[in-house]
Amino acid sequence: MFESSIPVLWRGLGVLLSYIDRIEEAQAEGRVDAGDILAAKLAPDMLNLGQQIQIACDNAKGGAARLTGRMAPAFSDDEKTLADFRGRVSKTRAYLQTFSATHFNGSEDRAIDQSFRHANYSMPGVDFLRTVLLPNFYFHIAMVHGILRHEHFQIGKADYFGKFQVGNPASELAPLAGVRFLTVGEAGVWAEQYGTPGPFRLSFTTKAAVVTSREFADGLMEDLGGLDGGLLRFTDWIWDEEYDRDPTQAYRDQYGEERPLLEAPGVLFGPEGARVAAELLSLILERGWSARFYLRSGAAALHIEEGSRFILFSKEEDTERRVQFRLIESGLGSSE
C-alpha cells in the first residue's frame, strides 16, 4: 500500500512542479501572463488551472492521511501567484515525506469513510486507493495538462509521464536528516539512481591492526568526502539467534521500525543519521558481514564482503588516493 500510493503521489506532484516551471518560462519570455493561465479553463463549468492544482494536492495529502489514520495539514486555498502554487505543491510533498511503510500497516482493510465525497458509505483502503484516490489525483493533473495544451503550450505525453527517476520511494522520498529503513526493492531503486560506480576502482583487504573497526569506519567516511546522506544495505549476515538479538534491532527500535533486518535491510540516512551509519558500518566490519554502501552525492560506492574485502568505486581519483594513504599509514590493509 505504501509503494502503490506515496511514490505515485510524489511523482504526480513532481509533474505539476514541471508544469509550473513551463508557465514561469513562458511568462519570463513574455509569451503569457501567469495570472491568465492560472485562471484558464477547458470549459465554462470546469475548475480553472489553479484550482486543479489545489485539488490534486488535497487528494495527495488527504488520501495518504485517510489510508493511515493521520490528520492531514489544512491549506487555506488562497494561492494567487505561481510562487504560491509552487509552495502548495512543495508543502504537500514535504508532508508525504513524513510517511514510511509502517504507517500503512493494515491500511488495505481500513474502512475509509466517503462522506468527503458526499457518499454515505465506506470502502476498504485498497479499494479507495484503486478506485478513488489515484484516478481522482491523476484526473486533476490531466486537466492541468489539458488546459496548458489548450493555451498552446508545447507539452506532450512525455511531460505528463515526467522523469522516470523522479519520485521513486528510495531516493526523492529520502529524508534530508535522520534514518529510514528500506526494503530490498526500495534500496535497489535508490542505488540505481545514486550509486552508479565511478571510473576509479580500488580493491583492498583489511587485516588486524591497532585501529578499531569504528576508527576505520570513521576514517573511511572522512576519506570518501564526508556524509550528507547515503544508503547502507546489508547483503549477507549471520548471528546466533538462540543467544544473540539482531544487532541492528536497537537502531530499529530507536526509529520506530517494526520490520526485522530480513524485511528491511537498507538503511537510508541523512546528515543527522551519519553517526548511525558509522556505527552500523563498524558493526559490519566486526561481524564479518557483507554490505553495499553508497553516498547520496554519488561520489563513491563501497562493496564490502565478509567485513574485510572491499571494492571502492569513486568519481574522483583523489578519493582513491586518500583511501590508499590511510591503508598505508595505519597498516590496516593493502590494495590488490
Secondary-structure blueprint:
Elements: H1 6-28, H2 34-39, H3 49-68, H4 82-96, E1 111-113, E2 122-124, H5 125-150, H6 157-161, E3 179-182, H7 184-194, E4 200-206, H8 213-223, E5 230-236, H9 249-254, E6 266-269, H10 274-287, E7 290-295, E8 300-305, E9 309-314, H11 317-330, E10 333-335
Antiparallel strand pairs: 1-2, 3-6, 4-9, 4-10, 5-6, 5-7, 7-8, 8-9
Helix pairs in contact: 1-3, 1-4, 1-5, 3-4, 3-5, 8-10
Would you write up a description of this structure?
With 336 residues, the chain is an alpha+beta fold. It folds into 2 domains: 156 residues, Up-down Bundle (Four Helix Bundle (Hemerythrin (Met), subunit A)), CATH 1.20.120; 157 residues, no CATH class. It has 11 helices and 10 strands. The strands form 2 sheets. It has an 8-stranded antiparallel β-sheet with strand order 3-6-5-7-8-9-4-10. Strand 8 and strand 9 form a beta hairpin. The chain is globular. The two termini are 46 Å apart. About 4% of the residues have low confidence.
Count the beta strands. Answer: 10
What summary fits the major beta sheet? 8 strands, antiparallel
Strand content: 5-15%
Measured as a percent range, the helix fraction is: 40-55%
* Shape summary: globular
Q: What is the typical, i.e. mean, pLDDT?
A: 83
Count of distinct structural domains: 2
Low-confidence region ranges:
165-176
